[in-house]
């Protein structure tokens, strides 16, 4: 008897896994529809953003010009220079607003950089601009990279550009909540065998402890990979069919924590690789915990505590790409560095092997054998 198909049959008989896959697909579709409907709002918010800037510059210009009239032109060279740069800045802001409204994306990026250059000069003269110098320098860096790739700027929380939408999907789905729900759904049938003593049926089979543990682990891995496949394929399919049609979407640059860039293509490859590797570690740990504790409720409580503590650690900024549990929050960990963490892959494989060996050791108890 083949034990892996046997484990799969138990999983799909519950139908909860199928429902989970369908809910995942529906969520991704709804997310895309939301982003699609939000496009005009994104454009309007961008216009409002720079309109607010132009209003503030206009107000400061008015005040400075009144002061210049009182003291006379040429009396205060700093004031005169401030007015001159302020006028240029205001004109460029108005030009930028027109370009955004007319969807001239690449030209708008060029003018936006000119705006920031003028704004930095304007600030250096003691004037106020609604963005800090660091923020403007970061935006200029991104704009230059986008111009180099000939790509329009995207709102990372409301985009229908395929590569950016897939990143948003990874951030919202392949995370602590997603992994925990997945593990509870596909892991419960295995650990529940200890509650109702049906584990005796497995021990009665003419198979070794090693084969039994590995078979359960592989069945969990296959179920997890099925979920990941559904996530990535759903996001890719709907965004490719109905999203923005551009020639090189996977060249889109994302900032890392080090303020370098990782391309959307590299991000996607790493997200597929490390989500699968994290599954290997997670499922091996779950199998070990199941054979060690042998109680569904206790296992779920331990898992909840481990996931919650790990999430708090990750959110506090203690993220190290070479540690596999960091990939519980996949998006955050991938954006730590531009380069792939080969040490993380090696350590994950070693930890998976250790967990499986411990699970095999724990499974060799004979109290379930008749």
UniProtKB/TrEMBL annotation:
It comes from the Bacteria. The chain crosses the membrane at residues 12-37, 172-191, 217-238, 272-292, 297-320, 340-360. One of its GO terms (cellular component) is plasma membrane. Keywords: Membrane, Transmembrane, Transmembrane helix. One of its GO terms (molecular function) is ABC-type transporter activity. This is Uncharacterized protein. It comes from Cerasibacillus quisquiliarum.
């Amino acid at each position: 008897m083949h034990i892996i198909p046997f484990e799969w049959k138990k999983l799909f008989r519950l139908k909860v896994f199928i429902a989970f896959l369908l809910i995942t697909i529906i969520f991704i579709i709804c997310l895309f529809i939301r982003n699609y409907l939000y496009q005009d709002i994104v454009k309007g918010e961008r216009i409002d953003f720079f309109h607010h800037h132009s209003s503030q510059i206009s107000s400061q210009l008015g005040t400075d010009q009144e002061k210049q009239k009182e003291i006379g032109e040429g009396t205060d060279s700093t004031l005169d220079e401030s007015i001159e740069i302020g006028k240029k800045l205001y004109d460029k802001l108005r030009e930028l607003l027109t370009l955004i409204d007319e969807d001239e994306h690449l030209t708008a990026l060029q003018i936006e950089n000119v705006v920031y250059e003028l704004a930095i000069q304007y600030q250096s003269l003691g004037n106020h601009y609604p963005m800090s110098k660091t923020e403007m320098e970061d935006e200029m860096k991104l704009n230059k990279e986008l111009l180099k790739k000939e790509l329009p700027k995207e709102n990372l929380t409301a985009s229908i550009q395929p590569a950016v939408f897939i990143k948003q999907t990874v951030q919202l789905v392949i995370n602590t909540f997603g992994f925990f729900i997945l593990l509870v759904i596909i892991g419960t049938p295995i650990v529940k065998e200890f509650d109702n003593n049906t584990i005796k049926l497995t021990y009665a089979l003419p198979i070794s402890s090693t084969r039994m543990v590995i078979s359960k682990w592989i069945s969990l891995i296959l179920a997890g990979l099925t979920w990941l496949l559904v996530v990535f394929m759903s996001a890719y399919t709907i965004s490719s069919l109905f999203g923005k049609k551009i020639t090189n979407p996977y060249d889109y640059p994302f900032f890392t924590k080090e303020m370098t860039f990782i391309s959307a293509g590299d991000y996607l490859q790493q997200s597929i690789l490390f989500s699968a590797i994290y599954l290997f570690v997670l499922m091996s740990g779950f199998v070990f915990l199941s054979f060690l504790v042998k109680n569904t409720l206790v296992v779920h409580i331990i898992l909840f505590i481990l996931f919650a503590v790990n999430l708090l650690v990750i959110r506090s900024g203690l993220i190290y790409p070479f540690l596999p549990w960091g990939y519980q929050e996949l998006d955050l960990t991938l954006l730590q560095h531009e380069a792939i963490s080969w040490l993380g892959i090696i350590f994950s494989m070693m930890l998976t092997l250790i967990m499986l060996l411990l699970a095999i050791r724990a499974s060799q108890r004979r109290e379930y054998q008749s």
